[in-house]
Structure formats: C-alpha cells, structure tokens
Design goal:
The chain has 105 residues and is an alpha+beta fold. The chain is built from five helices and four strands, in the order αβαβαβαβα.
Amino acid sequence: MPNAAENRLTASMTMCRKAGKLLLGFDAVKDALQKNAVKCILLAEDVSPKTEKEIRFYAKDIPIRMLPMQMDALKDYFRKRTAVFGICEDGFAAKFLEILSESHE
C-alpha cells in the first residue's frame, strides 16, 4: 500500500503529465536534456546501473532524485514501464525536490 509521500509523488506526477511537463523514458529525457528543457530528473528505485550512469552523464548539473517506487508500480499510473522521468517546468521540479527531500529525512 502506498504511503503518504508516494501518494503525493504520484498525484504530482499525474498533474505534471496532464500539464504536458512530464517526460517518460530515457530517450525522451535525453532529447529534452540536449535542448535544455529538463529541470529535474526522477529515477525509479530499480533503474539499471547502466541507465542511471548514462542519464547522469547527459544531465550534467540537472538535479536527479530517486523515487521510492519501482518501475512496475509506476507503470500502474503511467501505462509505460520506465525508470526515467523528466520534469520540464520549474514549479513542478521544485515540488518534486521538496517532496523527495522530505521522504528521505
């Protein structure tokens, strides 16, 4: 059963997606990074080490946070099994950074 932080995360991710500011998948995030359109990156907790290493290479100084959820749980919300999410708006990025810093304290 999801905890409060997970509920806040998935609700915020859903709003972000409806606003057209959530990217799903490594390729989409990588392409947007090359256009300087990504404000922060979220990774599923079971992201492969290779994928994490590659996205960190492309991200340079963009904040990256681990989600407290696995790809299969995220697939239930977004209908795509992916480990990499890009946030393309400052307000949403700040919200995710705030939620994820609280959940790790």
